[in-house]
Write a structure and sequence with these properties.
The chain is α/β, with parallel strands linked by helices. Helix content is 51%, strand content 13%. It contains 12 helices and 7 strands. The chain has helices spanning 3-6, 29-37, 56-67, 74-77, 83-88, 99-105, 107-120, 140-147, 159-172, 179-188, 193-210, 216-225, and strands spanning 12-15, 21-24, 45-49, 70-71, 91-94, 123-128, 150-153. α9 crosses α10 (179-188), α9 packs parallel to α11 (193-210) and α11 crosses α12. The longest helix has 18 residues, at 193-210. It is elongated.
């Protein structure tokens, strides 16, 4: 089966440095463009925000792979013994779940880190569910810096992107799936990249156990299990 000829859409298919391929569509192309601009960002911080499953974490992994960034956690930034590591590291990522904890518990440390990065030409990528204008800060100086950073929204994937991701994930496993089955899955699954990955993983596992292809019947069974 030639998947490229059967898909009624055309996405830029970019291999990411994290080992997976990333499909670019209207929902994420601005965010990808800003990652491509690194290190020429207007400030030390860039914020990518959007709902769960839109691909923020994948993009943060791409940035870590390309920049050598360290994923920042409350434990790391709050540990005095790691001061030399933080001072020597040029780039950082704060991914979704850690944002509120960092802001709530470590505003002073985060403020000093931001200023340190500004002096040394380093950068911090933050991913979150909402625009930083909605974040609550106690430290006014930190608030003004983070809220002045470039913030790029990522939308949920549209139908065509979900379909393309499903085809690509199955293709990566050398599994052939008819487009009619892909359409059936896409119309009934949760609209997120995480859900697409989860479905393909479970469907492939079930197909291997039952020694059959990805049919409509198998797709229905996996959707029911999910």
């Amino acid at each position: 089966m030639n998947y490229n000829k059967q898909l009624p859409f055309d996405f830029e298919h970019r291999p990411s440095l994290s080992g997976d391929d990333f499909l670019i569509s209207s929902s994420n192309q601005e965010a990808v463009a800003w990652l491509d601009k690194w290190p020429d960002w207007p400030s030390p911080c860039l914020v990518l925000y959007g709902p769960p499953g839109c691909g923020k974490t994948h993009l943060s992994h791409v940035f870590m792979a390309s920049s050598g960034a360290l994923q920042l956690t409350p434990a790391i930034i709050g540990d005095p013994s790691l001061a030399s590591l933080l001072n020597s590291q040029q780039n950082f990522v704060v991914d979704d779940g850690e944002v509120n904890t960092l802001v709530r518990l470590n505003e002073v440390s985060l403020f000093h880190l931001y200023n340190n990065l500004a002096l040394r030409g380093g950068h911090m990528l933050i991913t979150a569910e909402s625009h930083p204008i909605n974040w609550e800060f106690k430290l006014a100086d930190l608030s003004s810096r983070i809220k002045a950073a470039q913030a790029i929204g990522i939308g949920m994937p549209d139908d065509n992107l979900i379909k393309a991701v499903l085809v690509k994930l199955f293709s990566d496993r050398q599994v052939r799936v008819e487009i009619s089955v892909i359409d059936y899955i896409m119309k009934r699954m949760e609209r997120s990249l995480d859900a697409a990955r989860n479905f393909v993983h479970l469907a492939n596992e079930l197909a291997l156990v039952e020694k059959k292809g990805i049919t409509l019947a198998l797709a229905r069974q996996v959707l029911g299990d999910l």
